[in-house]
Amino acid sequence: MDNNNRRIALVTGSTGGLGTAICQKLHDEGFRVAANFNNPDKAKKWYEAQQAAGYTFDMFQGNVSDYESVGMMVKEIEEKIGSVDVLVNNAGITRDRPFHKMSKEDWDAVIATNLTSVFNCCRHLIDGMRTRNYGRIINISSVNGQRGQFGQANYSAAKAGMHGFTKTLAVETARKGITVNTISPGYVATDMVMAVAEEVRNQIIEGIPVGRLGGTEEIAHLVSFLASEKAGFITGANYAINGGQHMY
Question: Does pLDDT of 1 surpass 60?
Answer without folding.
Answer: no
